[in-house]
Amino acid sequence: MKFKVDSGLEIVASSWGNKIDPLIVLMHGGGQTRHAWGNTGDILGGAGFYVLSLDLRGHGDSQWHPDGDYLIDSYKDDLISILNQIGKPASLVGASLGGMVGLSLASDLNKKDLVTSLVMVDIGLYPNEQGSNEIVSFMQSGIKGFANLEEASDAVSAYLPHRKRPRDNRGLEKNLRLKDDGRYYWHWDPKFLDERDDNLRESQKEKNIRLAKNITIPTLLIRGALSNVVTQKEVDDFLITIPHAEFQEIEKAAHMVAGDRNDIFASSAIKFLKKINL
């Protein structure tokens, strides 16, 4: 399905479940696509929810912004436009970048009627700087593309040594695009990384901490036990700032929690979301 948002961009989404059921919006991390959630959408749809998994602007099959506008507030505006078109509030489930978008909307006092609950997946009020830099280094390493799927798979395995390598690389095709030069490239706009300005990042961090104090809806922080993006400090800061928030750690999972332990992640999300939507 496709949404034409207020910016004029076309945002692509996959859906599961019945439209009359409570709405859940899944938002992936930077450099990922709507397929990063694995079977999560299908599992949540089968559990009695209407689920949308978005390709955020500049990612996957959604349009790229011509001027490279990939600010958190711009992603937030896209999300607001989509929720207004659907006409019902949502539980927001966001990983990394998607979590930052969800946090931004959930903390907006003028938009309280759009969000029923918030699930932050391996992202706190801000990412750990060292862990964040490692992710960006991995993203930059693939800028020139890959000769074939095997080469792309080698890169992923080197970056995620804890994850069992799949026997079939065809699943990677959902996260890559084959260009006319015969090489495979990650399915996101390289301009996305242009927004990584240290001053801008520090300003966003301060803004998030300030605004997060506005959040009163049910909130869950899920951390991958092997993550270097959410350390204990980020967990502590999150729970101090949003004291009513729940916290869960998933063993044998790193930053890509849903991909590493999809079954455990989905079960944790369902348990929390069912409480909210009884």
Distance between the termini: 28 Å
Unreliable parts: none
Radius of gyration (CA) equals 18 Å
Q: What CATH architecture label applies?
A: 3-Layer(aba) Sandwich
**In the CATH scheme, what's the topology name?**
Rossmann fold
Q: Report the average pLDDT across residues.
A: 87
Under CATH, the homologous superfamily reads: Alpha/Beta hydrolase fold, catalytic domain
Query: What top-tier CATH class fits best?
Result: Alpha Beta
* Estimated structural class: alpha/beta
Order of helices and strands: EEEHEHEHEHHEEHEHEHH
Task: Choose one word for the global shape.
Answer: globular
| Proportion of residues in extended strands | 15-25%
Number of separate helices: 9
Q: Approximately how much helix is present in the residues? A: 25-40%
Please report the total strand number as a whole number: 10
Strand order of the largest sheet: 1-2-4-3-5-6-9-10
Largest sheet features: 8 strands, mixed
What is the domain total for the residues? 1
Question: What features would you describe in this structure?
Answer:
The protein has one domain: 3-Layer(aba) Sandwich (Rossmann fold), CATH 3.40.50.1820. The chain is of the alpha/beta class and 278 residues long. The mean pLDDT is 87. It is built from nine helices and ten strands. The strands form two sheets. The chain has an eight-stranded mixed sheet, sandwiched between helices. Helices cover 36% and strands 18% of the residues. Strand 5, helix 3 (97-106) and strand 6 form a beta-alpha-beta unit. The chain has helices spanning 40-46, 72-86, 97-106, 129-141, 149-159, 198-212, 232-241, 257-260, 262-276; strands spanning 2-4, 10-16, 23-27, 50-54, 90-95, 115-121, 176-178, 184-186, 219-224, 246-250. The longest helix has 15 residues, at 72-86.
